[in-house]
Amino acid sequence: MRLGEGPQMHMSHHSILRAALLAGASLSVAAAASAQTAAETTAPAEPQGEAIVVTGIRASLASAAKLKRDSVLIVDSISAEDVGKLPDVSIADSLARLPGVTAQRLEGRDQRLSIRGLGPDFSTTLLNGREQVTVGDNRGVEYDQYPSEFFQNVNVYKSADAALIAAGISGTVDLRMLRPLDKKDRVMAVSLRGQMNGMDKLNPDGKRYGYRASATYIDQFADDTLGLSLGFSASQTPSQNERFNSWGYPSAPDGTLIIGGAKPYVQSNLLKRYGAVGTLEWQPSDDFHSTFDVLASHFEEEQRLRGIEFPLVWGTDVGVSDVTVENGFVTAATFSNVYGVQRNDYNKRKADMISLGWNNDIRLNDALKLNVDASWSRAKRTDFLLETYSGTGYLRSGVPDTVRVERQSNGLFHIAPTLDYTDTGIISLTDPNGWGYNGTTAVVQAGFLNRPKFIDDMKSFRANLVGDISGSLFSQWEIGGNYSRRKKTSAYTSYFLCPPGGTDCTIAGGTPGSVAVPNEALLGSNVSLDYLGVPAMLTLNPLYLYDNVLDAVYDNRPGSLVRDNVVKEDVFTGYAKLSMDGELGGKPLKGAIGVQVIHSRQASTGTISNFANGVVTILPVSGKDSYTNVLPSAQISVELEPSFFVKLGAAQTMVRPRLDQERINQEFKYNLSYVGIGSSDPQFSPFKSEGGNIFLRPYQSTNIDLSLEKYFRGGGYVSVSGFFKNLTDFVDPNNNIAYDFSAVLPTLPADQRDAILADGSYIGLVKSPANTGKGTIMGVEATASLPFKLFSPALDGFGIFASGSYTHSEVEYGSNPTESVTLPGLSKWVASGTAYFEKAGFQARVSYRYRSSFLGEVAGLSAAPTFRTAKAEGILDAQIGYEFQSGPLQGLSILLQGKNLTDQPFVTYQNDDPRQVIDYQRYGRDYYLGLTYKF
């Protein structure tokens, strides 16, 4: 294998591939997309610093209701109950209680949000109105990167506005930090909370107890013209996870479904996060207002995973007996000649994020204002993903096992092995099934290491003018522009880990098939997998094995060498908007009409693999593209009756594809086993290429939104909203195009070339995403926020906040136009409810949220993202607390919380058959005890 270089050129997607195949050429293609960062004062009107004193859930709900009522846009929000205190454990927890918003749990924490049935790829997250980078693999924000203590409120805009830069198709989440000049007095608050998992630690080197601490300082100076707020946060959050993973369920010769293999694990995580935030606000006069924000966050997550991988019917020469079948599904069987693979794995992720923003409001005269905003955000993430393997001997040469597998009522399989997997007399560090392969020959793979790195950087500048209009229904005009540059760098490095003594991990290179387990690697106690029936397994320290025992050899497989890439996006946005504020037919009316014009330039650099003279060559490539979109929008809010509003919005919106889909990389593959099989079907061609598409365009959507909202004099409201989205340019990730690979034929041996020419199998497939999909999505949402004092003064302090939604979608890909696809993250039915009591310093609440089955994104082979159907789930949380309101303890509050009290597991399955469980993850319950003191 060797690396090649060549001149660069700009050409179409297919000509890029052809040039690489013909001459090993490099190329230049490109990808544009970025987001733009919105200046916070020009985002849709948002009442901040309300007269409401935020002291609890009732005030929080009242503040959110006032924002919803006053906004022309259709918006839902959450507000802090006190300084540094959102209503839930995390931002995502709180957002998941809003109508039409759901969260997917990963590692026991709510991380990925879906809005109105569209997953995180279809929404945008802003910080103080500015688009943000992410520590994730793509654009979707992982909300763990933001300490919830730092935010005053979080708004979810579900309709679009011309001044809302980088709005998503499904919605826009805007995280808002507090403003020190909104407070009238100095505020100092400290908080400390302890955490305990309901399950004891599942690994001896894991943790069960954690903590969370924060401090906030707010003050005003210079006659209240200068404000300063500072916040600090530190947390260590443990979690436990009983995991089961199935390889799949192939059909037996008689047509029954039988489990192919199983991979049970116990997992212990520890997330450490440290954050700081600061805001300096200066308003020397009514003519000038300047705000500078900084937010920095660092987190580290360690995962310890231990389990045994059992090759069953898909194992080599495995026997099956004593079978029980129910409705065409094997519920019990005995498997012989099984060679289990013990796993002692360790994953560590480090991520740092910083965000800076400087906003300036300048009043030029009584009717004209200028706003200028500049921002920069950057995220850097590194992963260390270590796997180590052990078994009874290399390539099934050791002692085989006999395993009895029986399906349980919860869908899991009870696994009863015969061997003692803690016996170092038969267990060694090895490649038990001979799975190691470096692209050309077998390797003794006793472990594997992935070390990906990601850097996401965004700079943005925005300016706009706002002018007043008198004597007309139109009250203001606004014009503005935004420029942003985003650059995401993805770099991958991986290594084979093998027993010491050879040169390249191969048997031919002198690598031994196994090495004895050193005593120094043994931990004091062995891990139990008894929740599935495995009594114990050998428990090793994988870091000791990596540092002191196993040799590391660079992974130079063609697929591994064409992963590095850079995607750049330069986005220029200009917009114009007319706002309305007056009466129409005697009814108060507010609204706006506007348009955005967005010019995008996207570029990517990466690599492409070529095949010449029997040798795979890796070539550098680059490319670029540009395009322009016009996005009109209009919205009105009419108060038909006192406190009864009808809001209507119509807009064209867009969201850019996933960054990994915009990469230019292509991996060429040559499958010798397909040579001469006599098929002209491109699926069976020896040639295939797979990668990204630099010419992808954004998803497009034409949206219509309607909301009916009734607000009550004593507080609270009810609302019903409906929406319709017509989706075009939908990205099909499975798009395949027939391609003529005959340019490769001269590089092949004569016998292979002749066989391929004879059956025409030189027509292969190029797999790359394309904008060939389309569809519709529609739904209805209902919300009720009702303090019970509306019904009787005796019920003062009691109340509910409840919401529900139904969403229907029909989306089809161009590659399969006759079949609708399921959108990732879409649950047809979503409901949540919170019942609370709060009075005289005492508070109690119970919250429940439900979502029907959905397509969830999980980590697949080699940590690559993959999609599977997730079962419906219902999660119950509760809390109780008391705040001392007088006496020597005034300002002190105590809080007890319980999360996931239903002990709801996260379960995925395949083929629309809940019996075919692929993932089962049980996180257990979490309990928190917290103290907060404000002075």
TrEMBL record:
The keyword Cell division does not apply. It comes from the Bacteria. The lineage of its organism: Bacteria, Pseudomonadati, Pseudomonadota, Alphaproteobacteria, Sphingomonadales. Residues 1-35 form the signal peptide. It is found in: Cell outer membrane. Pfam families: Plug (PF07715). It comes from Sphingobium fuliginis (strain ATCC 27551). This is TonB-dependent receptor. The gene is malA. Residues 69-170 form the TonB-dependent receptor plug domain. Keywords: Cell outer membrane, Membrane, Receptor, Signal. Coiled coil: none annotated. The keyword Membrane applies.
